[in-house]
Amino acid sequence: MVHQVHQLTKILFTYLLLVTTFSCQQQQQEEVVNLKVQTINAQDVKYASKKGIFYVNDKKFSGEIYWTYNNGTDTLRVKRYWKGLKEGQWTRYYPDQSILEYRFYHKNKKEGEHISFYPNGEMRFSYHLKNDVYDGNNLAWNHNGKLISNMNYKEGKEEGAQKVWYNNGKIKANYVIKNGRRFGLLGTKNCINVTDSVF
């Protein structure tokens, strides 16, 4: 009987812990969903970043702030914050208002897919990050649309197949990282590894 009561208490405690955790996570998600509480023009306010916290008119900022080009009408970039921390999608634009790049943040750290485009609309790069470091497949192209880099990362470190090409399509580096060791064409130049010189 005592064992059954102990088991029941354990189950009840686990259930309450899960409910509390889920409730907190749901509240945080709702806060982020409702992030766009205000949209302001950077020219209309006093703003500053201190020790990683963004302030508008001396208060931790929650919302969306945008900058314009010199003409005062075309958007240059848009940043989003929650309680002074970088949060959500940041966007930069070319003067013709086409997208230059998307970046994503969560609690001041880079997260998810970061994408950049050339002025002609061709993809420049697609990087994946988690907790502020590369994590996943990172691709880069030259302005003609040729793939020039295909790198893989796990928790900020190279892991798996790594390939880099010259603009003419010739292979520059082609190697695999397995258990922290490199195998294959390293693409060294002047005693500097290609991973040190390209990125």
From TrEMBL:
SUPFAM superfamilies membership: Histone H3 K4-specific methyltransferase SET7/9 N-terminal domain (SSF82185)
Designated name of the protein: Toxin-antitoxin system YwqK family antitoxin
Native species: Flammeovirga kamogawensis
